[in-house]
## 1
Amino acid sequence: MKVLVGVKRVLDPQVKARVKADKSGIDLTNAKMTMNPFCENAVEEAIRLREAGTIEEVVVLSIGAAKSEETLRNALALGADRAILVLTEDVLEPLAIAKVFKVIVAQENPDLVLVGKQAIDDECNQTGQMVSALLGWPQATFASKLEIVGDKAQVTREVDSGLETINVNMPAVVTADLRLNEPRYASLPNVMKAKRKPLEKIDIADLGIDTANRMTTIEVMEPPARASGVMVENVAELVEKLRNEAKVI
Amino acid sequence: MSILVIAEHDNASLIGATLNTITAAQKIGADIDLLVAGNSCQEAATAASQVVGINRVLHADDASLEGQLAENMADLVVSLASNYTHVLAAATTFGKNFMPRAAALLDVSQISEISEVVSADTFVRPVYAGNAMAKVQSSDSIKLITVRTTKFEAAAEKGGSAAIEPIAAATDTDMSRFIGLSTSVSERVELTSAAIVISGGRGMQNGENFHMLDSVADKLGAAVGASRAAVDAGFVPNDYQVGQTGKVIAPDLYIAVGISGAIQHLAGMKDSKTIVAINKDSEAPIFQVADYGLVADLFEAVPELDQAL
Ligand SMILES: Cc1cc2nc3c(=O)[nH]c(=O)nc-3n(C[C@H](O)[C@H](O)[C@H](O)COP(=O)(O)OP(=O)(O)OC[C@H]3O[C@@H](n4cnc5c(N)ncnc54)[C@H](O)[C@@H]3O)c2cc1C
Ligand SMILES: Nc1ncnc2c1ncn2[C@@H]1O[C@H](COP(=O)(O)O)[C@@H](O)[C@H]1O
């Protein structure tokens, strides 16, 4: 069996996003970039499945600018076997990303596609669902536990009311939540080894698909700031203020 | 213009988020149908018909809609979508699950988690954990939208009298099976609908200590929430989590106890009307969003608060 994992290069979650002065987007010049955290969980899960002998190969896919190679090398250092980089300078919507996945799935024939539940930059939370729709495969989103038994996957999903369990036929698309696993760190020897692992580059124009965006960003704004508050000396003062000033208790 | 809102329900009644989604739909246009889909959800359909501002309730009741699996829900939405200009659902784990699937099947983009309706094709949505707000315009013929419910008031639950129209479910795709749902039963109010929330973080040290918050919550009629660190450490179940990866809430009063205030936590609560932070570290970032900050050891401050109420 084979797993295809989607990894996206994003602004590091520890870095505060800054809106550009011309409101055209987020200023990413010289910003620290990293693998989307949810993709780290997806990669980790794939590697664990291979270590457990459930699958044989882990292929990682990223769609983005040339710099995304860094993110793919990182996934290779974590243990992925092979990488595919589909090159585009455009920032694509999940629908277009899903169409790229569909083409790569047709080439690679994986039994499972693993992606993160959401990218922390655009926060779309769509790609996995769209990939499974376009493939006509079942989906299991927000996974915190994944068990493959025969030709089925049993998935525990983190939902608003608790934990839901579903059984999906394979092949399937699973989207990873943060509690799916604890991602490992790449060791230095593995970082070195990753430099020699195969990484195929494909120009998006060669895929023959329509990747036009359906949305135009008119402007990107700062969120409204909260008025600064006050410090209270003790619990008595806090309760007094909540009762008489804020009138919330 | 005609709008389809997909109701979230538990078979007996509507989940509150549906009412906020209806308000978002009303800001787009007036002609709103509400889809109630499930297995044995007649009561929910009846409840839906009483919501103010609804034109028709479409009621799909079928065994294949048990657990509202994404594949069958998406096919049902697709079968109805051509009659509408907009399809809306709440940006809860329910809506986020099948809406993008339906969008891809219709070959349209989804506009995720809108926080504002600018016009029928232009919306504002938070990105980068709420550090920026993007105003986007969609060119798709049918707009599939999920709604950040904290940004819209709830529509009136009673007073309407829409007709209920039974409709057929789409064919069972038979791709997945619902096995079960385990919920952390609590007699307390639900986190997303509570007027007051008290949340604990890593500073709580263990699950046992959360009982201190329970006691305060009971006196205030509040719900109890948590940071990701507290959930990851196993102090409380996953459905307590507030933040980018958990629930987005905006109660009248939010009390953060032993929570540092990471950007991902703030993403889930910074629209609360009044924010209180109790933390022993005066430098903790949570104080930057707090209306009332108290630098104190929570193990002294929380019992004192409990006493004072
Ligand atoms: C992609 C991604 C998504 C995430 N999503 C979420 C999310 O949805 N929700 C979320 O909460 N986090 C989320 N996080 C994690 C987030 O970055 C922080 O790690 C987390 O919020 C920290 O939780 P905490 O404040 O409880 O713990 P800490 O940061 O460890 O803070 C504990 C605080 O408790 C205080 N404290 C300790 N002892 C006491 C005491 N006795 N009395 C008073 N104060 C005390 C300390 O001073 C400290 O400020 C996410 C992270 C990533 C990367
Ligand atoms: N450009 C991309 N390249 C590879 N994978 C992606 C890309 N965009 C999104 N994904 C995958 O889809 C997940 C969800 O992204 P999104 O739907 O944008 O929130 C991510 O965690 C990735 O696993």
Note: Residues 105 and 234 of chain B are 38 Å apart (CA to CA).
## 2
Amino acid sequence: MTEASRAGPGTHPSWGRLILSAGLVGLGLFYVVEALAIRVLPTYSRVGPRFFPYMVAAGLIGLGAVLAWRAWRGLDSDADPAGDAPMDRRNMAIVLGGLVLQSLVIEHIGFVLAAALTFVTTAAGFGSRRWLLNAAVGVVLALVSYEGFTRGLGLSLPAGPFEGLF
Amino acid sequence: MEAFNSLLGGFAVAITPANLMWSMIGVTLGTAVGILPGIGPALTIALLLPVTLHLDPTAAFIMFAGIYYGAMYGSSTTSILLNTPGESGSIITAVEGHMMARQGRGAAALATAAIGSFVAGTLGTLAVTFVAPLMVKVALTFGPAEYFSLMVLAFVTVTAVLGSSRLRGITSLFAGLAIGLIGIDSLTGQGRFTLGIPNLLDGIDIVLVAVGLFAVGEALYIVSRPELRKAEILPVKGSVWMSREEWRRSWKPWLRGSVLGFPLGALPAGGTEIPTFLSYLLEKRLAKKPEEFGKGAIEGVAGPEAANNSAVAGVLVPLLTLGLPTSATAAILLAAFQQYGLRPGPLLFTSNSALVWGLIASLYIGNLMLLVLNLPLAGLWVRLLAIPQPYLFGGILLFSSLGAYSLNGSAFDLILLWVIGLIGYLMRRFDFPVAPCVIGLILGPLAEEQMRRALSISQGDASVFFTHPLSATLLAIAAIALIGPMIWRLRRRRAAAAS
């Protein structure tokens, strides 16, 4: 790093990056603990199923430590690559929430309703608030995919009230 | 001559009506996903993997190759008219091409990109035809030690090349390696890192990781950045037929780009960014009017677009002959081979020669189809960009859930999908490249297997990697690629400090 960039945007710690690096170190430590639990046959004394996991864990811990040091010194820019407008947390939560909800309900309400739900929440997150129209588009798209993929290609998807109408 | 005969046999496979249809579907789909921002060839092929499980492998690979080639054509259209590259290989095209479009020369930019892609794609495929059999001969001499060293080299070059920081690239690679460790150990048959969850015994499917990182991660990132949600599409202006002057200025960059792209794609140096960037610099240096660069120089579109397509052809050489993926899409293609129980490598050319040569022959045909699809029809394709963003991403996430769920028919995979999507969001937010993670995930288990095999042959003596000459050479190149730039930077800093 040159003097210019050190004096540049980040001379203060970057907290987001610091948390991320701590997560990497934590993951590495967790991998060490888990690798210790792998059973090793005596014949595999030198390079058994633990060796490669140890290398990966060491890498994660080492990289996390270097990244944490750089984050503490503010060496990596904290700016978002796409620009510095404020983050749209609300719409992000809507899109993510739709996916989370889908993963919880799909086996209860069937693929078509769950997928249509994801379609509507995603469209809403991206700024379209025509709920009825979006719901109709979502149901039709999901129903066509359901029929096409289960009948044409033999996939199995969970059924709900809409499935099997045809 | 041997290659020529094999190729003729390949054409006999590729020219059957069914395979022509799959090629047509592939190139059409590829052009579409290349044009649409937010989906690329890696994601598309990943989504198609569960769906094509029961398809004939030759047909599936002809379609996948069409998607890979087609996406390179389509993404140039988006770069030129929208100034957002559809794929990473088109970042440079977005610079000059978009300036041309602003000056009302959009049609000429599209034409030089399409014809250049065709020229380079055909030359690149020709090179694959004759280089691949030679590579097979080299690959046959590889033992486990050489394979492991080759993978180490690929790890180093892929992380050093992709993205803005090599440290973050290596971190992304290690995240992929860590995910790859989850599941049953292939040599001892016991589960590792499964946390006692039975769904994790089979490991985390690469489709899930690719779809989570590329589709969900991208959707979450774009929705979180309001400024990324609006884009201005320029109309196609000017004649699609290039003027004599434009031809004169384009043909040399096409050829130079082709020559530059193929070897850089074929080396385990990762993807299409480097050759396109080098081609741009080269054209700028050779141009009679370098001052036009940055303001819409046609050479700056022709060269990089050719380099990018020829690099894609180059990527196929290590993939087919060594089973070594050097880009995210190639990693997914490797997963596709594994899905069909095939192992790319020198033996594939003898055991599945109809598939390999049919695939190569289909590339010639696909390229021709793409020229026809993209040159006169560019104006039609542009209408895809009119799909409103809410519906585009709604559709992408709907199909992503479908693909993720149908992998194992389990809602657990949908939970993993949004967890991985969140990781993908964080990687974009903090500027970690995504491709090394996908490559690490697929190559990690293979590297571990080869390493342990090499060490059990040598009875635990780790010096095999350094005493086999080929293996030692590969490791030396990897070390130079990793440490070289650091030393160079250090020396330059010292020199700057001294002066």
Note: The radius of gyration of chain A is 24 Å.
